[in-house]
Amino acid sequence: MTEIALPQSFDSTCSPGDNALIAAYLEGNEHAFEILVKRYQGKLISYLNMIVRDREVAVDLAQEAFIRVYRNARHYRGEYQFSTWLYRIGTNLAIDEMRRRTRSGRFFTQNVLNWLRPGETPPVTPDVRDSPDRTLGRKEQMTRLQKAISSLPEKYRLAFILREVQEFSYEEAAGILKVSPGTAKSRVHRAKSLLREKLAGVL
Amino acid sequence: MNCRELEKLLLDDLRAADRSAAREHLEKCPACDALRRELQALRELSGMLQTDAEAPDEFTAQVVTRVRAGSNHESNRRLTTAAAGVLVISGVLLWTAVSETGNTQEDPVEIDRALPDAAAEFDMNEPPVQLLLETPSESEYILEVPSRIKIHRQELHDEFYLTQVSH
């Protein structure tokens, strides 16, 4: 691994790359690891929440993913992006959680309904340009989109979320899912086709 | 360009090089134009889904606390997990061994002492079956048991996964 010297403290002008932070952490700079956590915590929680549909569980799984990164950092050789590695760990944890629920008899649809409590709407970036009528319609669309995504088969759902929501490239999504880029692409296509069917009249 | 080709391009996020040919087809084909609008709407909606949640204030601190606690107790935790796994399996083997040999035991027998006695009841030259035991902490163990032993999964705690991997 390339050795990169980092200052002990980081100011706002210093934005080291992920691999540099890993290298610094392995050299004994624990602050570097904290920076990595802060850099990815929000995105990872969002991603995991879209899969497991339970924010508390998503937070717990995200913490577990970072703990595994911490423990296994010495094995990371930088042959793929750090985010690929982190998200792969998170994805596996989420998949295990879903399978554990299936064994325990819990169903995801219940979690989706619980998540959407009366009066609550899915988190949406507000668009102040919309008229109130259009905004109301858009909220309903978002609700239905969330439900439709949750109802997709796992392999299509993961590929779609990574590519279309988290905006990874096909190559990055393929690395996370440990499939070929072609397979990742075909899964995203299939997800889009299924979502079109499920959201007929909504889009 | 036909409808099938255009659908493939649209699903793949139309590239600049294909737009001219696509535009020509879209002007003549209402069905494909509807497809284009639906996929565009899907993309816009998906882009509005939250991608960067607000983590709890203490998230980073909790991660650091857990990793520090874990590094001090990691080896003990693995031993504990291994021991728990062995105890669970021992319990199952005891139950099965008792059932198959027809013995009845009126008094409860301690699990960790019972296994050697149970194993002695079987011919260890029989071809073993390999079982993969996965524990809640993601540790994995390969167990080799005589093929006549039937592991009853309901005896295991829900969080242990047991899979037969070979005959």
Which pair of protein chains has the largest interface, and what are the residue counts? A-B, 50 and 36 residues
Rounded to the nearest angstrom, the distance between the terminal CA atoms of chain A is 48 Å
> Count of DSSP helices of chain A?
9
| Total of DSSP H or I helical runs spanning 4+ residues of chain B | 5
Q: What is the straight-line distance between the termini of chain B?
A: 55 Å
Order of helices and strands of chain B: HHHHHEEE
Average of the residue pLDDT scores of chain A: 79
Q: Could you tell me the number of beta strands of chain A? A: 0
Q: Give the % helix of chain A.
A: 55-70%
Oligomer: heterodimer
Global Rg of chain B = 30 Å
Which structural traits does this protein have?
heterodimer; A: mainly alpha; disordered N terminus; B: 167 residues; 3-stranded antiparallel sheet; 5 helices
Task: Give the SSE map.
The complex is a heterodimer of chains A (about 200) and B (about 170).
Chain A: H1 18-26, H2 30-52, H3 55-72, H4 82-104, H5 108-115, H6 132-151, H7 154-165, H8 170-177, H9 181-198
Helix pairs in contact in A: 1-2, 2-3, 2-4, 3-4, 4-8, 7-8, 7-9, 8-9
Chain B: H1 3-11, H2 16-28, H3 30-48, H4 59-101, H5 111-120, E1 128-134, E2 140-146, E3 161-166
Antiparallel strand pairs in B: 1-2, 1-3
Helix pairs in contact in B: 1-3, 2-3, 4-5
Question: In a nutshell, what does this entry contain?
Answer:
The complex is a heterodimer of chains A (203) and B (167). Chain A is an all-alpha fold and 203 residues long.
Structural commentary:
The complex is a heterodimer of chains A (203) and B (167). Chain A has 9 helices and no strands. With 203 residues, chain A is mainly alpha-helical. Chain A starts with 17 loop residues before the first helix and ends in a 5-residue tail after the last helix. The relative contact order of chain A is 0.09. The radius of gyration of chain B is 30 Å and the shape is flat. Chain B has helices at residues 3-11, 16-28, 30-48, 59-101, 111-120; strands at residues 128-134, 140-146, 161-166. The A-B interface holds A 30, 33-34, 37-38, 41-43, 45-47, 49-50, 55, 58-59, 62-63, 66-67, 70-71, 96, 100, 103-104, 122-125, 127, 138, 141-142, 145-146, 160, 164-167, 185, 188-189, 192-193, 195-196, 199, 203 and B 8, 11-12, 35, 37-39, 41-43, 45-56, 59-60, 62-64, 66-67, 70-71, 74, 138, 158-159, 161.
